[in-house]
Amino acid sequence: MEGRKLEIGYIKKGPWSGEEDEALLEHINNYGLRDWSSIRFKGLLDRTGKSCRLRWVNKLRPNLKTGCKFSAEEERVVIELQAEFGNKWAKIATYLQGRTDNDVKNFWSSRRKRLERKFRKPPPSKPHKNNKGKTPITTQIQFEEVPPCNPNKVEENLSYPTLYMGNMEVFEMVNLPDLIKPNYPHLESDHLGAVKVEATPLQTVPSVESSGYNFPLLPEPVMDFPLFPECHDFIPEPLDPCFSYEFDQQK
DNA sequence: AAGACGTTCAACCGCCATTAG
DNA sequence: CCTAATGGCGGTTGAACGTCT
C-alpha cells in the first residue's frame, strides 16, 4: 500500500488506489458484503469500514453506469420520485438500474444549482453578459427559489394535473406502473444483499414538503441548458412583466 | 492562450438506526 | 435495559475537468 506498512490507528483518506480496490474486492470475495470494519482490523486496508462500503457501493459494485450521463428517462424518474419521496436518494436509486444514491444525489444537486443560478439575482457588479447596457433581466425578478419540473409535458399519455395553493404547488401523482413496481429481479434476492422496494403511490404530494423548496409561480424562461426535451419546468405567467420583457428579448 | 467560471463526481462528515454484548 | 460498535444515508466539500470570455 504505497510502500508503507499498515499502522494501527492510522486511517487513510482520499482517492482510492488500484491496489486498495483489489484488496477490497478480495475481501468481499472471501467474506461477502459484511464486516466492513474487519477489513481494517485484518490489516488489509487502512480504510474505515464506512469508507470501504462506500467505495464498493459507489464504484466497485458490478453493473454500475459509471461515467454515463443520466438519460432523459432517468431524469424523468428522478424528478418524479423526488417529488414523491423527497430526498430519499437511496430509495430513488433502487429504481434506477446501475445508479447509486450518490449518483442521484449528485444529479439532483447539480440540477438544483443550475436552476438556482438561472433564477438567482446576480451580483450588481457584474452586468449580464448578453444584455449589455440594459438592465439585467434577472435583477428585476425576485425569484427566491426554483420552479419545479412540470410533469404535464413529459409524456403525452400521462396526466398530472398540477394544482396551486398560494405559493405552494401540489402535484397530483398518477400511478406509474413502471416506477412503482420496477422490474429489477436482481434487487430481490441476489448475493449483494436483498433489496426489496416497496412504494405506495401517493395521491397528492405537496412539493414544498417533499423538496424543501418554496416554489413560486414563475414565468417560463427560455432554457439555455439541456434538461430533457419534453420537460418544460416552468409555466409562463402572462401577467408578469418580467416574463414578457425577457420574451421580447428572445425574439 | 489564459484566467474565470461552471459542472461533475468521488469521498468525507455527521447524524441516526440497528445490533451485539 | 444500557452502551458501544457498526452500518446506512443525506448533506457537503473540494479537486479535476470542461467551457466560456
TrEMBL record:
Gene3D superfamilies xref list: Homeodomain-like
GO molecular function: DNA binding
Alphabetical list of SMART domains matching this protein: SANT
Pfam family for this entry, one: Myb_DNA-binding
PROSITE patterns documented for this protein: HTH_MYB, MYB_LIKE
UniProt keyword annotations, A-Z: DNA-binding, Nucleus, Repeat, Transcription, Transcription regulation
Domain HTH myb-type: from-to ranges: 11-56, 61-116
Main location: nucleus
Annotated ranges, domain Myb-like: 12-60, 69-112
Gene Ontology cellular-component annotations: nucleus
Entries under CDD domains matching the protein: SANT (cd00167)
Subcellular location: Nucleus
Protein name according to UniProt: Uncharacterized protein
Organism expressing this protein natively: Clitoria ternatea
Lineage: Eukaryota, Viridiplantae, Streptophyta, Embryophyta, Tracheophyta
